[in-house]
Amino acid sequence: MDSYCDLRIRATPDLSTNFILSRVYSNLHLALVDRGQREIGVSFPNHEKTLGDVIRLHGTASSLALILEGRELSSFQSYLSISQIMAVPKDVSHRVVKRVQPKTNAERLRRRSIRKGWLTPEEAQVRIPDIQDLPKLPFVHLRSCTTGQEFRLFISHGELQSKAVSGEFSCYGLSGETTIPWF
User: Fold this and answer.
1) Which of 42, 83, 89, 117 could form a disulfide with 173 if both were Cys (CB 3.0 to 4.6 A apart)?
2) Residues 79-90, mean pLDDT to the nearest whole number
3) From residue 91, how far is each of 18, 164, 182 by CA, in Å?
């Protein structure tokens, strides 16, 4: 992973940065799926309470060029400023950027517990409360192409590490183990 490029969201009076970022990320996900890209990682260098206004793509120069030349991001030209593909600086830290899937649907959890035989219907009703806490992590709103359901994809930026861990990324550009350079 020797290169990166930044997709910077341009603020508009009509649309929020989070809305645009969610749409861009959704199309980026489609591009990663269509091209079978497992070597491109994603991070959000300006994240705090939200994911910020920059999506940073990490990978080889050739894999990044393949994604950037696709039609999925071209429809956002008026909302995006796309940097050139640049070399990752020397002597940087690394971190894992991963998806966090909270267990928030109490009814689904009850059905699963009953189906697996872990709990009776009465026990499930008592032991699995209706209200589940959502994580206090930044997220993007996405819509499943398979089911059409909208969901929040919560993203966690892990602790800084001194050494890189190589591997593959999901079709969201995230991984629970593989690191991206952090600078």
Assistant:
1) 42
2) 95
3) 31, 11, 10
Q: Which of 44, 41, 60, 53 is nearest to 172 (CA)?
A: 41
Q: Which of 29, 58, 94, 157 is catalytic?
A: 29
Determine whether 29 is an active site residue: yes
Which pair of tokens denotes residue 95?
């971190």
How does pLDDT run across 129-170, given as a tens digit for each residue? Answer: 776 666 788 999 998 877 888 888 999 999 999 999 999 999
Tell me the CA distances in angstroms from 50 to 28, 47, 87, 90, one per residue in order.
18, 6, 27, 28
Exposure string over 116-138, b if 16+ CB within 10 A, otherwise e: eeebeeeebeeebeeeeeeeebb
Report d(CA 34, CA 47) in Å as an integer: 27
CATH superfamily, with its number, for domain 3-100+158-182: CRISPR-associated endoribonuclease Cas6/Csy4 (3.30.70.2540)
* pLDDT grade for 104, boundaries at 50, 70 and 90: low
How many residues would you count in the chain? 183
* Amino acid symbol at 74: S
pLDDT value of residue 177: 96
Instruction: Identify each DSSP E strand in 60-149 by its residue range.
Output: 80-82, 86-87, 93-100, 139-143
Amino acid occupying residue 95: R
